[in-house]
Design brief:
The complex is a heterotrimer of chains A (294), B (292) and C (413). Helix content of chain A is 70%, strand content 0%. With 294 residues, chain A is mainly alpha-helical. In chain A, helix 10 runs antiparallel to helix 13. In chain B, strand 1 and strand 2 form a beta hairpin. Chain B is mostly helical and 292 residues long. In chain B, helix 3 packs across helix 13, helix 10 packs antiparallel against helix 13 and helix 12 runs antiparallel to helix 13. Chain B has a two-stranded antiparallel ribbon with strand order 1-2. Chain C has 413 residues and is of the alpha/beta class. The N and C termini of chain C lie far apart (58 Å). In chain C, helix 2 links the parallel strand 1 and strand 2. Classes of the chains: A mainly alpha (294), B mainly alpha (292), C alpha/beta (413). The interface between A and C is large, with 31 and 42 residues. Chain A: This is ABC transporter permease. Chain A: InterPro entries: MetI-like (IPR000515), MetI-like_sf (IPR035906).
């Protein structure tokens, strides 16, 4: 049975939804405005703060606008903070990890759910247990292993760790997907004489593309926000990721320069936001067309 | 058919790379770490075997129990908050805003891509009391509730809520999008049939939409708990576990024990406890979702 | 083995001995404090000795302990490194990853570049061995705003009772008596340690280490109570536990707080004209005051040598010797001339226009009779955490002085 993805709800209903009708009494504008203020105000404040001097952080009121729009903080963030570099570093470790996690994850989920072999339940269980492992559990042994393999202070240390820790959730998620929808189609293709590799490339991959977007999104969230792994395996300041780089503006006695900190944050965030805005339509389309089934 | 699906070489190609990486990077180090739990000492001073004494110590360590309690309390509240607000936003997107939801969705999603350390630094300022009032205290001051002005991050009780608020704020956009996707998948026929049966408004949500959405909600909960039980960076960057040790989760306690106190054996034992906790919680959710 | 491969490997071996790169793992940014001076001197040296390229590495302070453990475990510590745990340093010395600098400097014939007081201080902290470089020589005390003191008819207090009375006077007029960073925690325990040193004498913490004094003894409980009282009376201002370092310093430099207890490393901030709104001429320094019935003297000062910086014994060969000789015979002069930093290295050329506060600090340093280390200097990392974490609860009154000290005494075991 082929499952036809229904068109999005919102676009189908020509008339207001009953739920909407029922709740029309609640001023919609107020709710939406509240949501937007809660989300956006802190970000706007952060942007404005990146222009403030040290004085302005200790005096005045918090919602005051910066007195001048001087770029000193940005200069310091750029030269000392090296935010441009850290951003690229984050990308260079997260993107390959995402690619690997998806490729290996889809393959493994396919092998575990569709293929028939004796140990597959045990192996599935093994991966499942992986979801629950906190990274602290393996930190020291991993460090020793990477050291012996000369992988410390290289992006490989990050990529391997991110990928390995991303696999369990990816596999869990995709096996669920295969369990619910894919079996009949795949079996039909095999009966039609396709080899298993053809089935994988031509039938399975295109079919899971949408869920892949969802998985990738969640994995991106965890990898991009990693602090522990990058702090542990990277010494070289030129290879540092954004999160570790942001800890930079605190000195030996705990001095923190707030202006350059917020300028760094703004610099770190700006490219992400731009990339996100550019890709947003694509991501959302992928998401809304795909299916999230546990 | 059978032969194709039982092809050993294909199985190796599909599962092999993932399994190999998984075993090398996760399984081997876990066993290695389990070995550490039976020892005392550090990597520099060397290890010696102490049997199960680390486990005995764990059971009697009040700091461990308070960290465990913090982790559980935090994970339950934050995961519930992330999924609840995610769900509310998803309903807002699909039933109120409809096609015009793109802008709102985009903006609410924005905090998801911000580095946690950055967000924490932002929240430190928003909830500050000195040198200038942060956002909350300024607001209280402006509406003449000066009695309520307080060092939100300087007291264990309120610092806990600031962490909760921050982590819910940061991730609700992600869960909103995940759940929105689930809502889009509910066939219109089902809703129409329910409406003909007289289900409207909250009734429709409660009896039709939520049950159909359960698998997505469960997946979201697993993702969320998976992250919140292992919370580390937000706490480290926001409060450093303080004041005192009042906001120290298991992860931070483990990290400090191993790396600041050089007690790797005991630190690994705490990690084992954390792992067991994560396992129990995940297994409960997975089992319940399978039942559905 | 053929002759050719033998020659080739000989060349390779030669190549590796010739190249003597120096790496410095620091918690400071590259353009700050001692790290800046060392970096500049090392690059100068590199110009004439290209075989000794210099690299700077950075670890955030919060992450240093972990980083060192991991690096030490795989025996991959860099040439020169910051280290904030004396116990760990002791272990590293035993495993040959930290050099005996007394032997090293004597061998190089530059032992006389080290200030004897600084050397004594380091030795006291490290079981009698000189294993770290005295990159700074800091004196700690109460810095105060002369104008505020004058306007309120206050003099430098000589006893704790006078200090508390002055604070009460200021507080009654709506002025915050002390700026303190409770977020950093250590500025609070410094006060407990100072009080204890006045109560029992400058060697108090050595006696605790030896076990002849217990932290649960009445004098320590009194010290904890004295500090708690300051907190309970709000003398540290609002939300002391959320005040970060820069904020505390700014509160003082903007005239919002009358006093701040701090080490002389803070002079770089005091000398920053953009931040200092009260003027350097307007800042005074007095020592931790005497306490009733105390054995300590106000001629004893709390001293330290900045963040401990060790040299890796593994790389301590003739090449590194040359590097050390070049950098550290110039370090003291350069640090004083360029940054107004007082270091544990002798100064041969005193710059003409020394900042006023640097001169003040130098004068006080010369008058020091006995130096004592900070409260947690002899503690294990675990005990240090217990001391600092609970200090936050102490000043807010969430834990009693007795509880504070008994928890700490338990952690010492």
């Amino acid at each position: 049975m082929t499952r036809i993805a229904p068109a999005p709800l919102a676009e189908r209903s020509g008339r207001p939804h009953p739920l909407a009708e029922r709740l029309q009494s609640v001023p919609l504008f107020v709710i939406v405005a509240l949501v937007l203020v809660v989300t956006v105000y802190p970000l706007v404040w952060m942007l404005l703060s990146s222009f403030k001097t040290a004085d302005e952080f200790s005096g005045g009121v918090i919602w005051a606008l910066p007195r001048t729009f001087s770029f000193d903080n940005f200069v310091r963030a750029w030269t000392v903070g090296k935010m441009n570099l850290y951003f690229v570093n984050s990308l260079l470790s997260v993107i390959p990890s995402l690619a690997l996690v998806i490729l290996m994850g889809v393959g493994a989920a396919f092998g575990l759910e569709i293929m028939r072999w004796r140990l597959k339940t045990s192996v599935s269980l093994l991966f499942l247990l992986g979801i629950m492992i906190p990274i602290q559990m393996v930190l020291l042994p991993l460090f020793t292993m990477y050291f012996r393999a000369h992988l410390l202070d290289t992006r490989w240390a990050l990529i391997l760790t991110y990928t390995a820790f991303g696999l369990p959730t990816t596999i869990f998620f995709l096996t669920g997907y295969f369990r619910n929808f894919a079996r009949e189609i795949i079996e039909a293709a095999v009966v039609d004489g396709a080899t298993i590799y053809q089935v994988f490339w031509k039938v399975v991959l295109p079919m899971v593309m949408n869920s892949v977007v969802t998985v990738a999104l969640v994995q991106f969230f965890f990898m991009w926000n990693d602090l522990l792994v990058s702090l542990t395996f990277i010494n070289n300041p030129d290879l540092r990721t954004i999160q570790a780089g942001l800890l930079n503006f605190a000195g030996q006695y705990g001095q923190r320069e707030w202006g350059p900190t917020f300028a760094s944050v703004t610099l770190a965030v700006a490219p992400t936001v731009i990339v996100y805005l550019l890709l947003n339509q694509k991501i959302m389309k992928g998401l809304t067309a795909g299916a999230v089934k546990g | 058919m059978e032969r194709t699906l039982r092809d050993w070489r294909a199985i190796t190609v599909f599962v092999g790379p993932a399994l190999l990486l998984f075993v090398v990077i996760l399984v081997v180090p876990i066993v290695w770490s389990l070995g550490y739990t039976l020892t005392e000492g550090s990597v520099i001073a060397g290890f010696h075997f102490v049997g199960l004494s680390n486990y005995v110590r764990l059971a009697q360590d009040p700091a461990f129990w308070s960290a465990l309690w913090f982790s559980v309390k935090y994970a339950v509240l934050v995961s519930a908050g992330q999924v609840f607000f995610g769900l509310m936003l998803a309903l807002l997107y699909s039933f109120y805003l409809k096609r015009s939801s793109v802008l709102v969705r985009t903006l609410v999603f924005l905090p998801v891509v911000l580095p946690t350390v950055a967000v924490a630094q932002l929240f430190v300022k928003l909830f500050a009391i000195a040198p200038q009032y942060g956002f909350l205290n300024s607001f209280l001051h402006a509406v003449h509730l000066d009695d309520l002005v307080q060092p939100w991050l300087g007291q264990g009780g309120s610092a806990f809520w600031v962490i909760v608020v921050m982590d819910v704020w940061k991730a609700m956009g992600l869960y909103a999008v995940l759940l929105y996707t689930g809502l889009m998948d509910i066939p219109e026929d089902t809703l129409e049939a329910a409406r003909l049966d007289g289900a409207h408004g909250w009734k429709l949500t409660q009896f039709i939409i939520l049950p159909l959405l359960t698998p997505v909600i469960v997946t979201s909960l697993i993702f969320s708990l998976n992250g919140t039980l292992k919370v580390f960076d937000s706490v480290l960057a926001l409060t450093g576990g303080g004041p005192g040790t009042s906001t120290t989760p298991l992860t931070l306690y483990m990290y400090k024990t191993s790396f600041s106190y050089s007690q790797y054996g005991y630190g690994s034992t705490i990690a084992v406890a954390l792992t067991l906790l994560c396992m129990i919680v995940s297994l409960i959710i997975i089992r319940r979702s399978r039942e559905n | 083995m053929t002759t050719r491969t033998a020659a080739l490997s000989a060349l390779l071996v030669l190549g590796t001995t010739l190249a003597a790169p120096v790496t410095f793992l620091s918690v400071q940014n590259e353009d700050q404090g001692a790290t800046k001076i060392i970096g500049e001197l090392a690059r100068e040296y590199q110009k004439t000795n290209p075989a000794s390229p210099y690299t700077y590495q950075n670890a955030p302070q919060t992450d240093l302990a972990q980083k060192l453990q991991l690096l030490a475990a795989s025996s991959s510590l860099p040439t020169v490194y910051n280290i904030d745990q004396p116990a760990l340093l002791g272990q590293l010395y035993k495993t040959g990853q930290a050099a005996d600098l007394e032997a090293t400097f004597k061998k190089l014939g530059i032992y006389n570049t080290l200030n004897p007081a600084a050397v004594a201080l380091i030795k006291r902290q490290n079981d009698g061995r000189l294993v770290t470089l005295p990159l700074e020589l800091n004196i700690e005390g109460f810095w105060y705003n002369k104008a505020i003191f004058a306007a309120n008819g206050l003099k430098e207090p000589r006893t704790w009772a006078e200090l508390v009375k002055d604070a009460a006077t200021l507080n009654a007029k709506g002025l915050q008596p002390f700026a303190a960073s409770g977020d950093q925690k250590w500025p609070l325990t410094r006060l407990i340690g100072g009080y204890a040193a006045r109560k029992y004498g400058y060697d108090v913490m050595d006696r605790v280490k030896a076990g002849t004094l217990k932290l649960t003894d009445p004098g320590f409980v009194e010290a904890a109570r004295a500090v708690q009282d300051l907190g309970k009376k709000n003398y540290f201002g609002k939300g002391v536990n959320t005040v970060d370092y820069a904020t505390a310093v700014d509160q003082f430099l903007q005239g919002k707080a009358a006093m701040i207890y701090m080490g002389s490393w803070v002079l770089s901030d005091f000398n920053d004209a953009a931040r200092n709104k009260i003027g350097t001429q307007n800042i005074g320094l007095f020592n931790f005051p005497a306490v009733t019935g105390g054995k300590g003297s106000t001629n004893d000062w709390s001293l330290n040598t900045g963040i401990s910086t060790a040299v890796n014994q593994k790389f301590n060969d003739a090449d590194l010797g040359n590097w050390i000789k070049y950098v550290f015979t110039r370090y003291g002069n350069k640090a004083l001339a360029e940054s107004g930093m007082i270091t544990g290295f002798t100064v041969t050329q005193t710059p003409r226009n020394l900042p006023v506060l640097t001169s003040l600090t130098q004068t006080k340093l010369k008058a020091v009779k006995n130096g004592y280390l900070w409260f947690e200097a002899n503690f294990s990392p675990k005990a240090t955490s217990v001391a600092t974490d609970n200090a936050q609860l102490l000043v807010t009154g969430d834990i009693t002085p007795q509880d504070y000290m008994s928890k700490l005494q338990d952690a010492l075991k």
